[in-house]
Amino acid sequence: PEAITVQELANRMAERGADLVKALFKMGMPVTLTQTIDQDTAELLVTEFGHAIKRVSESDIDIDTSEDVDAPETLKARPAVVTIMGHVDHGKTSLLDAIRGEDVVSGEAGGITQHIGAYQVSLPDKSRITFLDTPGHEAFTEMRARGANVTDIVILVVAADDGLKPQTIEAINHTKAAGVPMIVAINKIDKPDSKPQKVREELLQHEVIVEDMGGDVQDVEVSALKKTNLDKLLEAIQLQAEILELKANPDRAAEGTVVEAKLDKGRGPLATVLVQRGTLRVGDVFVAGASSGKVRAMIDDKGRQVKEAGPSVPVEVLGMSVVPAAGDAFTVVENEARAREVASYRQGVLDKKRTTSAPVTLENMFANHA
Ligand code: GDP
Ligand code: MG
């Protein structure tokens, strides 16, 4: 019988490897991403996650996602998706802006960057990294609570003159609970009173062991203000991404997650979609949460109109019937009748939930996902 590594199976299912490891652990099989599992176990996981995906639309008129596994030869490398977390004022926004300034493509084009909720940075070797533009663990927790796991890597920002603070510790806990690998950016090293070594020691107390301390968590001393060592941080991300071997099938109907949505006075409902598998094209018919529509136009993070978007690419989508919510699943379907059918069913489920269920808290999130 065919054996497969956990990461390879995750790629084929377009799920995060960490989620599979957690599921296996719950089944009493403690394995790592690089270990192999047998076919029976693999099939069990597929079924398990088929249900998990179904939960998003929960219906008899469901989009059939069970057995929805891409053949290994269809998988291609995809960019890592990164979220920045950390205590208030430790420099999350500054770091996002500084990294964005490093983008060789936007630099060349002199293009105006546009806020769409996520952006991509192209590196000199032509590889890319996708950054989610909503720093903070609230967005992260909220998305995860809704079953949307879009982040491959978390950058934990800690100001070297301030050390670990309550929100730093919360971010550590969320990241660990999600099973997402972390890279520590020790920021503000330009400050005379910065104490990077003290940060490493404090991290140790919270079981985040950086490489210097004999652990496997990468840490990089940076200054978002002076733009120091941003290249090193990007290299650390690339290294982590290589270890994860992130892949997806670009040649299929697109699936993704809404990362940001709003009502624009002139253009109507807008949503930024992070494509996770397949390729999204202008003209595609889709369902996004309780919204549906046909892609009228797509705008990338540089403000350019694009005709298609592949795995790990964030695009603003025009053509939604109503404004979806961040964390909503986005799925291309065969026709508009089907899209409306699924969307209205989901609206019904949402209405029911709103009147019966408790609001999202850390406690019920862990109850659902631990
Ligand atoms: P956020 O709340 O985590 O998003 O933090 P901000 O990016 O808004 O930064 C908070 C403050 O720290 C601002 O006044 C920034 O100018 C300052 N800051 C951010 N990064 C650095 C840095 O590397 N060095 C210094 N000296 N100040 C920084
Ligand atoms: Mg900020």
From TrEMBL:
GTP binds at residues 86-93, 133-137, 187-190. It is found in: Cytoplasm. Residues 77-245 form the Tr-type G domain. Belongs to the TRAFAC class translation factor GTPase superfamily. Classic translation factor GTPase family. IF-2 subfamily. One of the essential components for the initiation of protein synthesis. Protects formylmethionyl-tRNA from spontaneous hydrolysis and promotes its binding to the 30S ribosomal subunits. Also involved in the hydrolysis of GTP during the formation of the 70S ribosomal complex. This is Translation initiation factor IF-2. It comes from Sphingomonas anseongensis. The gene is infB.
